[in-house]
Amino acid sequence: METLLLIGIGSLLLLGIIGCIIPIIPGLPISYIGLLMFHFFSSYSIDDNLLLFMAFVVIAVTIFDLWVQFHLVQKFGGKKKAVNGSVIGLILGVLFFPPVGLIIGPFLGAFIGARAEENSGTYKAIKIALGALLGFFVGIIFKLSVSVYIICIIFKAIPITC
Prior knowledge:
The protein is mainly α. It has one domain (2-157). 81% of the residues lie in helices and 0% in strands.
């Protein structure tokens, strides 16, 4: 039974990693749920303070991920249409052109959204689109780092015996 539980937890952790890249899937919360299942339902244990700390980190990085994308689009001169275009482009890119759509989708979406805004020339629209892409990658790096750390916590809790 423990083996099936560990396989389920491993599946959650894998889905969490995938969700860090694909924005439709909430990767960090799924990884954290895997950590909680490991702690509460397996014969292994994680320190309670570490669980609370990781809950804080998951919430903080999730909020940061949303904020950094909006902030960088705005910092590079974009407004609401550029932000919305970036999100829509990302979703469409993932659905119709995986895996290249992860990069091209947010860029084209932000570019089209920026061009639709008032007084946005091609140069400014490209600049805004690059800001959207930068925000997307910064968010991915932070989310992946935390998800990988959660996996490391679980592996450290499992004693390896031969």
